[in-house]
Amino acid sequence: MTTRPRLRDPSTFVPGIVAVALFVVLSAVFLNAGFGSAVGFGGDVNITATIGYALMGLLDVAGDSAVASEGFLAAFIIVAFLLDAALEGSVLLATRDTEGGDGE
User: Which residues cross the membrane (predicted)?
Assistant: First the structure.
């Protein structure tokens, strides 16, 4: 037979009420937020090519199709470092300890 969870400690009411209040406030903010119209780069620009030219230092070769890509380049490099750290962390966690420090 299954039973429903019971509140055993009245001190758990305060964090629950705070969580519900935070949910209500965030819901009101998100539902009432207004977004402006989308603003593109206009014209015939290729963001991917611009990032590639910026990585190689060849923005002068890109011509008229290049846009300011410093923000994109910084985000690209930050994400690359974060993914690299996640990969190294997963490899570190996946390796087994062959020393057997606890007698196994």
Answer: 12-33, 71-94
